[in-house]
Amino acid sequence: MTDSFTLVAGWILDGTGGPIRRNVLLRVEGGVIVSLEPVGGGVPPQGDLLDLTDCTLLPPLVDSHVHLSMSGSGDPEVRRKQLCAPYGGVRHVIEKHKNQHLAHGVLAVRDGGDHGSFALKYKRESLPSGNVPLLLRCAGRAWHAPGRYGTLIGRPPPQGVSLSQAVARGEEGIDHVKMVQSGLNSLKDFGKETPPQFGLEDLRGAVEAAKRLGLRTMVHANGRTPVRLAIEAGCDSVEHGFFMGRDNLKRMADKGIVWVPTAVTMKGYSEMLDPRSLEAEVARRTLEDQLEQIRMGVEEGVTIALGTDSGSLGVHHGGAVLEELGLLIHGGFPLEKAIQCATTTGAQLLDLEEGFGCIQTKNPARFLVVRGNPSLLPGSLRFPEVCFRGEWWKMGEGSG
Ligand SMILES: [Zn+2]
Questions:
Q1: pLDDT (0 to 100) of residue 335
Q2: Which residues in 74-84 are b (16+ Cβ under 10 Å) and which e?
Q3: CA dist 178 to 81, 85, 240, 244, 367, Å?
Q4: Mean pLDDT over residues 22-50, rounded?
Q5: What b/e sequence results for 4-34 when a residue is b if at least 16 CB atoms lie within 10 Å of its CB, and e otherwise?
Q6: Residue 34 pLDDT > 80, yes or no?
Q7: Quick one: which of 5, 89, 100, 175 has the most CB atoms within 10 Å?
Q8: Per residue in 252-284, pLDDT tens?
Q9: Amino acid 265: pLDDT
Q10: 3-class SS of residue 221
Q11: Longest alpha-carbon distance in the chain
């Protein structure tokens, strides 16, 4: 197969959130999409025609919140080992997770940090070879307040140094700054809010320091007050945002701050814990509450990007993207808009190259092909065929 060809697609979801296009003739020249026309629209097919009339095309997926060095395994021993192993013991785990993403058509991820900055190290080590088809955006290590939640994914500022001073010092190679502004959701006490980790001035100073370094900020925040402070500080995205309430959704819509709801984390807990336990019951209720918030977010016009928090208990790299897509649809997104959250919105949040996550003319031919019509999504996304800049490849979960 050359990097120039014409295909007929049964259905195209172009990633913009616009309506599904039916029976489209798509022409690629030199790895670039040069035309997209309805079949019979006047552009005669040239050469062999690739028949994908029984297939759906959609852009590559973007997961806006992962932890590549951790797995979703329910085995406590596996989790414990991953959390204290040196880089040499984790590298193959990151490699496996990278392949799981590719196998599900996820071609870009934003890493929210790990205690050893291992995902960033992996990225920097792999870059010279140039053969990393998964685009990685890494936080390195997150920032959390001393004595508060966050040691698994980061560290506190050194003693006597404020958050804003610590962020201003910069860190080589990071793509964005991750800050932890609340605790985790309680699995015993439904909806219990934890106090904010940082004060407004310190958080705002940190966001501004990051901006001066040309970096965006992602803030882990659950509960009304921690989320409100993250919004007032001007962060780029609120991560999780459980129990934030409608007023915060309105504020986010007003300020154009992106929300990454990671609802699948609660699905993960509810499925991995003893179904009769209090914790599983609280996780189920928390998931329902988050789906209700997603419905409110849709009503208020909040920009939502799909992120899974893969690496959390029961949340598996790659596969969790399909589950979160299903939850966004369950929460009120039409399919086209849910795909937009997982493609163009994510690509913009990660600051990927112009046009990433969107099937349109003049863009590199970079899309997924899945069997069947769009009603089979998101399930049909398991092991899609991938066209990358005009080249075709298919990834198995164990390959690479
Ligand atoms: Zn996370």
A1: 97
A2: eeeeebeebbe
A3: 24, 22, 13, 19, 29
A4: 85
A5: bbbbbbbbbbbbbbeebbeebbbbbbebbbe
A6: yes
A7: 100
A8: 999 999 999 999 999 999 999 999 999 999 999
A9: 98
A10: strand
A11: 69
> What is the arithmetic mean of pLDDT over 83-94?
92
How many A from CA of 67 to the centre of ligand 1? 6
How far, in Å, from the CA of 112 to the mean position of ligand 1? 5
AA letter at 167: V
Average pLDDT over residues 125-146: 85
- CA neighbours closer than 13 Å in the CB half-sphere of residue 52: 25
Distance 180 CA to ligand 1 centre (A): 9
Residue 240 CA, ligand 1 centroid: distance in Å:
8
Q: Is the predicted pLDDT of residue 399 greater than 90, yes or no?
A: no
* 3-state SS, residue 111: strand
Give the type of residue at 265: T
Structure tokens at 315: 């949340």
Does residue 389 register a pLDDT over 90?
no
Q: How far is the CA of 308 from the centre of ligand 1 (A)?
A: 8
Closest by CA position to 238, among listed 124, 251, 393: 251
